[in-house]
Amino acid sequence: MNAEQIQECAQALRQHHFDTQIVTSTQEAFECMKRVIEAEAPKIVSFGDSMTMRETGIIEWLRENGDWTLLDGFDASMPRPERLEIRRQALMSDLFITGINALTREGSLHWLDMVGNRIAPVAFGPRKVILVAGCNKIVANRDEAEERIRRIAAPRNIARHPGFRTPCAKTGVCMDCNAPDRICNTRMEMLRCHPAGRILVILINQELGL
Ligand code: SF4
């Protein structure tokens, strides 16, 4: 992905009413998120799992700073039903942070979720949403976005879930399975940001995440 294509993606997103920032490193992404979070002064903050988001270090900072309550629906020390309950509460958080599976140079955002806890609060609920993505997530259009998710992101993501029994866990290739452990259940495409500026997309000019 060259600088021109990243600019093209950012420009299309801005035209679609997403706030958009291009940064060069995860550290710069962290500084950008920190500024926005401090300005928003949220009471409740939560997040959907994302390798890119975690690489910025924002979750550790949120844990140690501020007057907000951080809802962590991924705390491995908790039983799964408790974690799922926290993810339900995250739907009503003031500020929500997560990643994106694919972005297009036409200015749309794309996800494919297992549980839906990542896409639901992006669509509605939290007053402010911050999304982070490496430039490797940028593709030309919707077809390429869906292809990227199906062929690259989902089969790689399954490797982060040892014990999940799906065809891709064995072969690394998507078979559009019907397994109970299937991680590809709900697809979301966001075409415009409403209200304008509710969502901030931070594009990091590095290869990050799946
Ligand atoms: S549909 Fe099934 S086989 Fe394909 S990536 Fe998702 S979990 Fe793996």
Short description:
It is built from eight helices and ten strands. It has helices at residues 3-15, 26-40, 51-55, 58-64, 80-89, 119-123, 142-158, 167-171; strands at 19-23, 44-47, 69-71, 95-99, 102-104, 109-113, 128-134, 138-139, 186-190, 199-204.
Can you offer a commentary on this structure?
This protein has 210 residues and is α/β, with parallel strands linked by helices. It has a single domain (3-204), classed as NagB/RpiA/CoA transferase-like (Rossmann fold, 3-Layer(aba) Sandwich), CATH 3.40.50. It is 37% helix and 21% strand. The protein contains eight helices and ten strands. The chain has a six-stranded parallel sheet, sandwiched between helices. Strands 8-5-6-9 form a four-stranded mixed sheet, with helices on both faces. The longest helix is centred in the last third of the chain and has 17 residues, at 142-158. It is globular and about 45 Å long.
